Amino acid sequence: MQYTRYRRAGYYSSYFPPGVKWLLISNITVFVINFFAALFLEHDPFRIFGLVPQEVLQSGCFWQLFTYMFLHGGFFHIVFNMFALWMFGITLEGDWGTRRFLQYYFLCGIAAALCVVAVSIPAHETMFRTIGASGAIYGLLLAFGVLYPDTPILFSFLFPIKAKYFVLIYGAIEFMSSFVPGSGVSHVAHLGGMLFGLVFLKLRLSRKRLAPLTTLRGQFHEWRVQRARKKFQVYLRKHDSDRDRWVN
Question: Do residues 71 and 46 lie in contact, with contact meaning Cβ atoms separated by under 8 Å?
């Protein structure tokens, strides 16, 4: 019976690791509270947590760069984002660990928000409100395609396609859609999350390539220390053998 309970616990944790689990719970909880608040209250209590570039720049509402990720505009919006979070997040968190996974997730989301703020200034759209975790989700999508390029994914839940092509297709769609005004979707946030994810992963891979060189330098330094220590020990032994041991 103990073995059965252990297997069930491991099965559950592999499909819902801590980072993914708490992100799902927090996003769904905020969505449900916001849904009922909109029904019974005259004003939106969560409006201040959405990303409005003008409020960030002029009023110092910097928390919006983070909090906007927990708000969603409708049922299909949150379902798509949470399914993608679960789909790609369980593999990434399993390989990276919870801390590194959450760090990457939130950095992608914040980078996407900064892209929205930066683009809104020349476009004179600083009053538009952006919500949703899509920037962070597209960062996860990018990471999955880079790290597991040949893993098959069902495109539109029907056609199997390699992850690297899946990412390229979605990236191209978002890039072309960003030139279409009035879509109601922040394609800039999606592209910002993907771009930051690509840069982040490339820098991390570059550091890994330099790691053997750093290790070699450390080993050479350790060899020099050991060599100097041995020479000093030989010198001490020779000095002691020449010295009158009765002299204090």
Answer: yes
Tell me, yes or no, whether 232 lies in a domain.
Answer: no
Structural domains of the chain, count: 1
Give 162-189 pLDDT, tens digit per residue: 999 999 998 999 988 887 776 678 889 9
Residue 248 counted as domain residue: no
Active site residue 120: no
Q: How far apart are CA 146 and CA 141, in angstroms?
A: 9
| Cβ–Cβ under 8 Å, residues 151 and 144 | yes
Cα–Cα distance for residue pair 197/179, rounded to 1 Å: 22
11 has a pLDDT exceeding 50: no
Q: Chain-wide mean pLDDT for the chain?
A: 82
- C-alpha to C-alpha distance for 17 and 39, rounded to whole angstroms: 33
Of residues 10 and 57, which shows the higher confidence score?
Answer: 57
Q: Check which CATH number belongs to the domain holding 201 and give it.
A: 1.20.1540.10
Q: Please indicate, yes or no, if residue 226 is contained in any of the structural domains.
A: no
Give CA–CA dist 13/29, Å, rounded. 20
For residue 98, being part of any structural domain is answered with yes
Q: Which of 72, 134, 186, 187 is catalytic?
A: 134
Out of 72, 120, 186, 190, the active site residue is 190
The residue segments making up the domain with residue 105 are 2-207
Under 8 Å CB-to-CB from 243, ≥6 apart: which residues? none
